[in-house]
Amino acid sequence: MFIDALVMKIRQGQVANRPVYVVVGISLDGKCDVLGMWAGTGGEGAKQWAGYLTELRNRGVEDVFMVCSDGLKGMTDAIEQVWPQAVHQQCVVHLVRASLRYTNRKDWQKITAALSEIYTAPTVAAAEARFEAFAAEFGEPVPGRHLALADLLTVVRAVPGLRPRGPKGASTPGSGRCLSARDFPPR
């Protein structure tokens, strides 16, 4: 399941920017469905997401294997409140953007290539080794960037035994997109 909020212009008497909460589900056979869209009134928050996820559960979404979202504070708790067994994976794109926040723009290409080596690692041990090499190459990270980089390792650890497949650059779990049902073979 993928969840995120988009900011759109909505007319209610006058035009205003409003968040639109979107939930897209992918079944085990690879079928994608928009499970819900809600127009909000304020900013995106985990409390609102908890209400929307509860509504989905009440409408019949009984079990969720993995939820992919941005790094909104409290999101993991909101998901676990509704589906205790679900794994919360932060989107790799959001984590990379957060890591770049404290770096010089001229270094972004070199840093993103090095980060790609971390989240496309074939094993957790390899990812940790690449993470250490990254820290040695780029020096001691500032505190906020260090947290975002450490979160990349949680993506690798999220589903033990899941490994990128296909040639480098192919659409694999570690290629910068979140996981989907295609990444899990049917039982």
Radius of gyration: 18 Å
Helix content estimate:
25-40%
Low confidence ranges: 160-187
Arithmetic mean of pLDDT: 77
SS elements, strand count: 5
Main sheet record: 3 strands, antiparallel
Question: What is the 3D form?
Answer: globular
Distance between the termini: 19 Å
Structural class, please?
A: alpha+beta
In short:
This protein has 187 residues and is an alpha+beta fold. It is 39% helix and 21% strand. The strands form 2 sheets. It has a 3-stranded antiparallel β-sheet with strand order 1-2-3, with helices on one face. Strands 4-5 form a two-stranded parallel sheet.
Question: Could you describe the 3D structure shown?
Answer:
This protein is α+β, with helices and mostly antiparallel strands and 187 residues long. The protein has two domains: 89 residues, no CATH class; 91 residues, no CATH class. The chain is built from six helices and five strands; from the N terminus they run βββαβαβαααα. The strands form two sheets. Strands 1-2-3 form a three-stranded antiparallel sheet, covered by helices on one side. A hairpin with a 1-residue loop joins strand 1 and strand 2. The C terminus is likely disordered.
